[in-house]
# Entry
Amino acid sequence: MREFIYEALPGRVVFGLGSLDRLAEEVERLGVAKALVLSTPQQRAQAEDVARRLGDKSAGVYDKAEMHVPIEVAQAAREDAKRLGADACVAVGGGSTIGLGKAIALEFGLPIIAVPTTYAGSEMTPIWGLTEDGIKKTGRNTKVLPTTVVYDPALTATLPVHVAGPSGMNAIAHCVEAMYSETANPIISMMAEEGVRSLARALPLVVRDPDNMAARTDALFGAYLSGASLGAVGMALHHKLCHTLGGSFNLPHADTHTIVIPHATAYNIGAAPDAKARLSRALETDDPAGALYDLAETIGAKLALRDLGMTEADLDRAADIAVENPYYNPRPVTREGIRALLDDAFHGRRPTAA
Ligand code: NAD
# Structure
């Protein structure tokens, strides 16, 4: 018998090639007087273009967004927003820039208009993160959920393929764990399945032919579905492991997700029949874990944690941290099982489902 709980998150999505042309209209629609445009230093030019498009509705550009939102950066951006009288933020960039917008919204409750340029998915979630003294705190608050998201695949054209591929695998990882989440429901699972299908088809094309805008559009559509999945349901072992590896061993976010997701899938798939059926359909395979490993290989991603600078001596400590606090996972999490998973991921072995 079908039974579920599904809580839809609010939010307006404007999707399509050239939709950046509609940004000013979207800002107007919200009744915003002055929006602070956010970016990383690397994306300053894109942010300035956006500020120009906003005309007198722009409060200026703050271009110091950084990975994992250091508290000092968040404080400086909050002060700028206050000083300039901003009543909204336009975040142009990936998870780091959108994360900075969330830090400002958490303090002042102003709306965020997100213009994503990677596949990380933060724009669709009420999850914020802030890093203080090397420790990243995260939380959920609907105050930080962007009010409007403008997805323009043209903005992803400058995303180098070695960044685009792992970023897309990061999005696939959100979809996989959404399907076997403790709070999984058929609406989100349907979106997550389509997210995997779109991304798995598009990513090899994007990597082979970076100017293929149809493929870039499909990848961004998959990323949207993935972000919506991440925002709506809880995650499990894979996200816990990646959080541990990123936080305690300083490994890069998307590359770590890319390496771990085939192994986390192999660990869990036997205990998650609905996810197995959906992933098998989406990836056109009877071995989803192996297919995810092959996809990572096809897009030229790194396949082994040792290639990210982790050492074999770190594996025991990583396993200890990953089992420290109990959390939901479809298959029970054991120290021995996690240590074996990490060993496979460290050496970059093709996984076999348990
Ligand atoms: P990122 O935002 O750190 O971007 C990586 C680099 O790529 C930056 O230098 C950026 O300027 C550049 N870049 C981005 N788009 C570009 C483009 N189109 N062209 C050229 N350069 C471009 O990377 P990310 O993977 O998007 O985000 C990672 C961060 O987001 C992590 O801190 C992660 O924890 C967080 N995150 C949060 C959520 C959430 O729901 N809160 C979800 C996913 C990720």
Observations:
- The domain at 12-156 is CATH 3.40.50.1970 (Rossmann fold).
- The first strand starts at residue 12 and ends at 15.
- The first helix runs from residue 23 to 29.
- The mean pLDDT is 96.
